[in-house]
Amino acid sequence: MLGGIDGRTHDALEQLYADFDGSVPRLRTTLSTAEMIKYASNAVLATMISFSNEIARLCAAVGGVDARDVMHGVHRAAHFTSRHHGEPVTAAITAFLEAGCGFGGSCLPKDVSALVAHGHKVAVDMPLLKATLEINKGQPRNTVDLIKKHHKNLRGIKVAVLGLAFKPETSDVRESPAFPIMQQLLEEGAIVTAVDPIAVHEAKKAFPDSRVKYTDAIASSVAEADAVVVVTPWKQFDEVPGLIMKRAQPPVFIDGRRAYDKTSVSRYEGIGL
Question: Are residues 103 and 159 in the same domain?
Fold first, then answer.
């Protein structure tokens, strides 16, 4: 969107972005509308994630239903598919219709909160977006509860938390669900090892708790753990199920992103399963 105050402003913006791919749509709007589009675009993605997590909670409570299968069925709806050379193609936005341990990053939490705050400022209640944030806030707790299905008392239990960045391929740890997960684990007496290929330095600054052992050593962390929780599915963690199954007494494996085959380990727990 090209937010401007008049035609001259819009023309200047068009010129500024002239070298970008011409297939990228451009929409001329007012400044306020452009700002609202930006916030609304991120809010709808966050809402899709929280919707998926609410469905996942229901699936887990009903039993015998895997939220991952449900959402992949939803992905096949005509609204989310197109045809390319006769073959069905699923829309990229369906990546946000997946259950997991919660969204983070610099955009989604901030922008949803900003819309709720702005609504309050102009006396407009925002119940849907409030619920989006509340559901997201509960996902770290739900993730820890999966460990407690196997270890009712977490005191002294060694937990390896894998993935500190809010998504793979970045060192950005802002609003990462790893931190509230680790906070709850520490409060319940668990011994926490936090693992990330590149975000350890940033994580230490964001969550400077001396009780947490920070490392990029995957194999040794898994070898010592009673429970392994994947928060961010880095490619480097693909070896983890194999490492787990080499153990004489495999730890419980908590798949916080439903990124792994649930038959790949003997003690698997996943969001919405």
Answer: no
